[in-house]
Amino acid sequence: MKKLFAMFIMISLIGTGSGTVMAEGGSSGGFLKEEGTPPPGANDPDCRPSEAHPEPVVLVPGTFETMERNFINLSPMLKEKGYCVFSLNYGEQNGLPASGPIEDSAEELKVFVNNVLELTGAEKVSIVGHSQGGMMPRYYMKNLGGSEQVEDLIGLVPSNHGTTGVAGFSDLTTTGADVTSCTACHQQSSDSEFITDLNKGAETLGSTSYTVITTRNDEVVVPYTSAFLSGPDETVENITIQDYYPYDQIEHQNIAQDPLAFNFVFDALEHEGPADPDRAVALFK
Prior knowledge:
- This protein is of the alpha/beta class.
- The protein has helices at residues 2-12, 67-70, 74-80, 102-120, 132-143, 170-180, 183-187, 193-198, 259-270, 277-281, and strands at 57-60, 85-87, 125-130, 150-156, 209-214, 236-240.
- Keywords: Signal.
- Residues 25-53 are annotated as: Disordered.
């Protein structure tokens, strides 16, 4: 029964799409075509950052997700606010998106960010990621030289310290990983070598601002507090959505579609430093 449940959990999250091609020619925008179908508002090769929004926003989907489905709501809202929005698919393994080795996925993100910077002429990007997509950029920043290129890292239920198991059952995560041949699932176990190495030393780097947005109802990243990061108050903000919206009972997958969670994303992008949750939820801001 547990194996069947694990299969349901993992397969239910599968999207369609291909991984990032290690493209060159960022100045022409041709690399964007290799990513597949973007969410609305994203991957416009003619978009150039404005003075008000100088950093392009890069959206990074979660495990088994594609950019088109994961950010179908957030991407057009960011575009409407005047941001240049870019997104990628990555980590395809056995036909499943965002399931391959996280180290390789981070290399794909590095190439994508470099191409976005070349295309737009921007000095830095801001990253918004869901689940694995909120954690994997930390490997890119820590081990692949990306820390100087990221202004904000905003994670929606990021698996920063891994998970003890889907729905709290430790064997479900590994069983599901076996069913789907998902290397990234194994690596996101809380006791994995990958997670242990990622969190050795400082969890946050340099002047990058880190905003973590999570929910007490997270049934995938367990416990939900494992999403939180340690670091200076000036650069790190850990937010549990029910502390500010008590009746919002959103869970892991759907937080990426939650307009209340987006308020914290927008606040982090619009101001220096991480999100200020009190400011983000104020009626008049």
